[in-house]
Amino acid sequence: MALDRWIAFVILLVCVAYGYAAYFTMDGVLPPIMQRSPIWPSSFPKVLAVGAILFSLAIVLGLEKAPQKEDAADINLSRLGDYNVGQALLLLGLMVAYALLLRPLGFLAATFLFLFLGAFILGERRFVLMAVIAAIAAGCVWYLVDAVLGIFLSPLPGFINSLASGG
Q1: Phi, psi of 76 (to 5 degrees)
Q2: What keywords are assigned to this protein (predicted)?
Q3: What is the DSSP letter of 13?
Q4: How many CB atoms lie within 10 A of CB 49?
């Protein structure tokens, strides 16, 4: 089985577990007043689970349009050394570091560093442009999440927040 079908199979298994949780475990803890609502907190996860299951099944079963000839974009595992595996592994490591440093550094600094270093890993060398774009992107995302959506997202490092709160 091709690599894309294996990935789709793993996604299918995850989505089946996610769908099971959405259909059978999330609704049992709803208070009685919410059980009469037409839209429950599990409505969107249910739609996501069904859609992802259908799409991953289409790939696993080969229902998507198969290429007639070997496409240059297909991954050939016998030529794995020809790909930029190092870049991919560095980006994965950077994602893990971002998740671990999000609270200690704060959202703005962690996101800025993630975007800046990610662009550097991918080969961009215009440092001033990278810094400006990373700063604008981090600031805009923080503003949208914090001010527009109303979800508190600590912009500053954890030690500054603890000093500001007096603890």
Answers
A1: -105, 110
A2: Membrane, Transmembrane, Transmembrane helix
A3: H
A4: 21
Tell me whether residue 107 is exposed, middle or buried, using C-beta atoms within 10 angstroms of its C-beta: 0 to 12, 13 to 18, 19 or more. buried
163/145 Cα distance (integer angstroms): 23
- Give the number of other CB atoms < 10 A from CB of residue 112: 21
Hey, what are 164's tokens?
């500001």
- A 10 A CB-CB count for 8 gives 22
- Is residue 8 a contact partner of residue 59, using CB atoms and an 8 Å limit? yes
First to last CA, the chain: 56
CA–CA dist 122, 118 (Å, integer): 6
Query: For 95-154, what is each residue's pLDDT tens digit?
Result: 999 999 998 899 999 999 999 999 999 999 999 999 999 999 999 999 998 888 888 888
Q: Cα 109 from chain centroid?
A: 19
- 18 to 32, 62, 133: CA distances (angstroms): 24, 23, 35
Residue 67 in this model has a pLDDT that exceeds 70: no
